[in-house]
Design a protein that fits this description.
The protein has no helices and eight strands. With 148 residues, the chain is mainly beta. The two termini are 15 Å apart.
C-alpha cells in the first residue's frame, strides 16, 4: 500500500500487527491540489479524489463505498496534513522516471502495487487478510523521486 511517510510515525499497517508502516522501495512524487472542488484537475488520464487517511496514512480513493482502514472503520481525511486531493495519472504505460501497476483495491479502496512477479504478494488488505488486495480499475502511474 502506498502511504504518506514522515509525519505518520503512529500509522497503522495491517502487515505488522497494526504498528507503523515501514518504507521500502521507491519514494514517489504525487500531484495534488488544495481547496478545489472534489475531482478538480481531472482529465482523460488523471483521476482525482485520492486522499491520505490521517489514521493509517494510506492513499485511498475517497469516493469509494468500500473503505476499510486498518485503524478500524472507514478511512478519514481532513486534518492539517491531508487536505490535499491527489491526482493520479493512469493508463500511460511506464514512462521514464515512473512506476506503473499501482491499482485500486475494491475491498478497502487503498492504492497498492500489483506489479510483483509473484502475484500472491498483493499485500495485506484490512478487509481480506487471507487473499489480500483485489485490483480493479485503472493502471496508475506514479512519478519516482528516489529509492528508499
Amino acid at each position: 500500500m502506498l502511504y504518506l511517510g514522515g509525519i505518520y510515525a503512529d500509522s497503522h499497517c495491517p502487515r505488522n500487527g497494526y504498528s507503523g508502516h515501514r518504507a521500502a522501495g521507491w519514494t514517489f512524487k504525487l500531484m495534488y491540489n488544495e481547496n478545489t472542488p472534489p475531482g478538480g484537475g481531472e482529465g482523460p488520464n488523471v483521476q482525482g479524489n485520492w486522499r491520505h487517511c490521517y489514521r493509517c496514512a494510506t492513499l485511498y480513493w475517497a469516493l469509494s463505498t468500500s473503505q476499510r482502514c486498518p485503524s478500524w472503520g472507514a478511512h478519514a481525511w481532513g486534518d492539517a496534513f491531508t487536505r490535499q486531493q491527489y491526482l493520479l495519472s493512469h493508463d500511460l504505460g511506464q514512462p521514464s522516471g515512473s512506476q506503473n501497476q499501482w491499482r485500486y483495491c475494491v475491498k478497502c479502496s487503498a492504492l497498492f502495487f500489483n506489479g510483483y512477479a509473484y502475484k500472491g504478494e498483493y499485500g495485506l488488505c484490512p478487509y481480506d487478510d487471507i487473499y489480500g488486495h483485489t485490483a480493479a480499475g485503472y493502471d496508475f502511474v506514479l512519478a519516482v523521486s528516489a529509492y528508499t
